[in-house]
Amino acid sequence: MDISFATKAPFIIFANVLLLHLIGYFAQQYFSVAIVWLVVGIIDAFFGFRCGLYIRNIFKDELTGLYNRSFLVLFLKKVLLEVRAKKTSISLLMVDIDEFKQVNDTYGHLVGDIVLRQIGAILQKSIRKTDCVVRWGGEEFAVVLPVTDRDEASGIAERLRQNVAGFDFNSSPVILKLTVSIGAVSLCDSVEQDYLIRQADKALYQAKQTKNMVAFV
């Protein structure tokens, strides 16, 4: 994506839309009004679609294809509103790849990138349609589980852990066996986003002391 567009997007979009409609306004003096505005409408729709793709990509992690931290903030805000309104539960999992630095140091960052993509794919395939997995940063991922209590979250977290542990990471020329540590928290009613994340981080810290385990707070 062009950096000049990324930094000046509001002005570029405004200028293009204004110019397009000015052209349409003057063109209708020489061509059929219906045809002119049909063409303008088609161009508008295409331009809107391209802008939509751009906005979506803002919330995507380029390496893994998962949503990113910025998207998680918006998603959590929406889910927490529903939790308060319906008095249901929400669970959050923080997932960290064990000994990931050793992978980078031993095999290089290209292999590390392959591992991150594969981990992301495993997590994505292991959750429900209503859940959301994002790359939180580095070798850490976050999984939001709406309307999910502690027992359900425990089962999902354990499934994620087992799916990673049982996977052969084919990062040519080597096949690696890796594990993840998962910190989990389940809360209900009036819970704030920052508090939810802090609690999940605290649980992850506990899990990392042993590694390859799920810890709850």
UniProtKB/TrEMBL annotation:
Could you confirm whether the keyword Membrane appears in this record?
yes
Annotated InterPro entries: Diguanylate_Cyclase, GGDEF_dom, Nucleotide_cyclase, Rev_trsase/Diguanyl_cyclase
Q: What are the TM regions of this chain, as residue ranges?
A: 9-28, 34-55
User: Which UniProt keywords are given for this protein, alphabetically ordered?
Assistant: Membrane, Transmembrane, Transmembrane helix
Fetch the CDD domains from UniProt. GGDEF
GO MF annotation list: diguanylate cyclase activity
Q: Which GO terms describe its biological process?
A: cell adhesion involved in single-species biofilm formation; negative regulation of bacterial-type flagellum-dependent cell motility
Say yes or no: keyword Disulfide bond present. Answer: no
**Where does the GGDEF domain lie?**
88-217
Cellular component, GO, one term? plasma membrane
Protein name, as recorded:
Diguanylate cyclase (GGDEF) domain-containing protein
Organism this protein belongs to: Propionispora hippei DSM 15287
